[in-house]
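Blinded run. Sample ID left blank on purpose so nobody reads anything into the name before looking at the predicted structure. Input follows.
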Amino acid sequence: MKKSVVALGLCFALGFGAFGLSACTPIINFHTISATSSNQIQGGTVEGYGQYKTNSTVTLKATPKTEGGFLAWIKNEEVVSYEPVFSFTADTDTEGSYIALFATDEFEFARLQNVEYQLNSLTVPNSSVMLLDWDLEYNTMSSLYHDLAHMEDEPLSNNDNNFFDGIDHEDKVLFSSKKYFFQLTLSLQYTNLETDDITTEPISTKFFVDFADIFDSSVEVENGVTTFTCDEYTLHLTPMTTDYGKEYTFVVSVNDFKKSPSWDNTDTNNNNQLLTMTFVYKKPLL
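Blinded prediction complete.
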């Protein structure tokens, strides 16, 4: 108490008066935490949003209208919690907008489940090849590219079906109402078997996926599987019935990527690339 009186007395002694009091009062920062429901009418409601002091505890609560209907909390399209009651500390890193995802009858979003990459029959004359790194990024034309999947230090051989599965990928949620732009970049190292000279080469290609097109009237439906094909990719949407209701497996396959000038492309069956991204909608999000 004495320290407070001395501090205030010093402020007035300096001649600041009321302004001095304001200047000597500790500044308390506030952070805006917003929370919305992916579908308030059919899915559920949220609470806990507002202004919070720095280092105070924020607790967001999602209340689904049906049992098991809550999926996840996301921020910037990243899953931050699978629990309906989500607590964290307010600061500059946690401030922002949070969305509670609820399972409804509408296909509104999908979680990335798996990424696979295939490069058949790699042929580089008089060289051995090492894949230094492999990056898949995305954006929505409203932000910079975000990491989606990554792989590094994988030896590539001349064997057929050079297939990489289980690639490390970010826990992302993508919305079917958006058009996503993807960028795949390979960094390859070539070692000349005769001279031992080493060179590197980046190979980059871009493509887009418009998820909203899967419900376009032009898509094909056969045996319950919806297929959409355009110049850049093929998309398959397969519904399944689980203990949690309907679940969809959402597979995007992209091929005919840009080829390296170092590769032997005389045989059209050589060096074909295939990228497969598998998404899952609704529980269980495994």
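Unblinding after everyone has recorded impressions. The domain at 30-102 is CATH 2.60.40 (Immunoglobulin-like).
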